């Protein structure tokens, strides 16, 4: 393995996953567990705000309440800037009809509310991935990304928060390679000063074994191979298309669940293989950050993977993956 200065690690510390909502989050438990994980090292906390449009459907507001999110996040503001923590704030574009003016106004509101405690600002969530409740399925998402990035940069400069790194995340499409060529070709046509020059990092959502079967280690199509391929394809093939060759990579989301056919030990083993692969490839592919999804299960009794991605149960009892992640952070974290 090449010499590595270390990664900055992090986690999504709340419990909602997509449209799955569990019991209310417990700030005291979150603080205790995150403090134990980071052990005094730099640590990123991921949070999400959602734009649902000017007149959102009540059913969608029941899943994500944008006004509540703009009032407060999971933890008190000061928590995100204490003890070497850094806030990675995701602005997700989810209207049912295209609404770029409303989206840009939402970006302004989010910046004015949270810029003082934000270190990384992500404009759109996986705009290359057209599935329900992910931004890639929303009308006007390409404009939301490209106009939103430039708009956010102007606003951050205007209010003097130039310390905030600006980026966006992508998912590895299920039909790789080439499953999102139209997305990248669209970005390729935009002059670099209008888009690429504003990008400080690219996030990758990486779930090679979370929602489908993966071959055992040592056989073709195993989790190590899939992890390496996703990172290599993004760095060597798709990012150059969009004039983003040298932009740092963040593994913005990565996780693997427990469930009826996946024991807690299986989760820990899969997570170890993915994270160690990411650590090994980080120097070659300029990976600087890794964020785990998630700290806590949404609902440990529900059998579907989306509900059991946590490294603790829904009542905050640590699974074996918690201790594993704690050890990897201690060994490989940026000091």
Tell me about this structure.
Strands 1-2-3-4-5-6-7-8 form an eight-stranded parallel β-barrel, surrounded by four helices. By secondary structure, the protein is of the alpha/beta class. The protein has a single domain, classed as TIM Barrel, CATH 3.20.20. It is built from nine helices and eight strands. The longest helix has 22 residues, at about 265-285. The radius of gyration is 19 Å and the shape is globular.
Write the layout of secondary structure elements.
Elements: E1 8-12, H1 27-38, E2 43-51, H2 58-63, H3 66-71, E3 85-93, H4 100-114, E4 118-123, H5 141-159, E5 165-171, H6 181-188, E6 201-206, H7 223-241, E7 249-254, H8 264-285, E8 287-292, H9 320-332
Parallel strand pairs: 1-2, 1-8, 2-3, 3-4, 4-5, 5-6, 6-7, 7-8
Structure at a glance:
With 335 residues, the protein is of the alpha/beta class. Helices cover 36% and strands 16% of the residues. The chain has nine helices and eight strands.
Structural class by sheet pairing and helices: alpha/beta
Query: How many individual helices?
Result: 9
Query: Main beta sheet: strand number and arrangement?
Result: 8 strands, parallel, barrel
Radius of gyration: 19 Å
The H-and-E topology, N to C, reads as EHEHHEHEHEHEHEHEH
Number of structurally distinct domains? 1
Unreliable spans are none
